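Box 3.1 A note on notation
Throughout this textbook, protein chains are presented in two layers. The first layer is the amino acid sequence; the second is a token string describing backbone geometry. Keep the layers aligned when reading.
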Amino acid sequence: MARYTGPKSRISRRFNEPILGNSKALQRKNYAPGQHGKGRKRKQSEYAIQLNEKQKAKYIYGVLERQFAKTFDTAARKGGITGLNLLRLLEARLDNVVYRLGIAQTRRAARQLCLHKHITVNGELVNIPSFTVKVGDVIAVRERSKSLEVVTQSLSLRGVKKYAWLEWDNALMSGKMISIPEREQITENINEQLIVELYSK
């Protein structure tokens, strides 16, 4: 299954944001990667700004080009605001929900848990990270996987990070999607309007 496997710090430096997790490289080298990274910054064109925003969203959610385009197409065909629909579809991905619930510390780790059949949805094993979670769905750690060190460690570090559209039962190691997230509940620094403008060209 295709996914980005390149250097994380390089991507973070490219967007000047820790989008793939905290990186010390951002503090040491707070300029773009490559031999011209320290050079004079040129004014970006409108297209370049829009493309950068789309690329950033792709890297944040771990989605490749074709899948992202399909997700945008689904969002465009839905009623309402296309940009908000896009973010909601990305947030409703199973790997993202597993990450938001605190079962995994990163989306990459959440994807791995899904692929290795450690996650259930409504009692059924689901090993597709892009599976769309719906309101009312119960996401849980598989019974035999509850003692996994990676899961217990992540849940112990979960802290106070909570999302109003999700609820978590620590005793059962399960969570539930109780509503569709509103724009202010989606914490990622993405300007979805730029992505809509890019695909509208």
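The mean pLDDT is 86. The CA atoms of residues 11 and 149 lie 28 Å apart.
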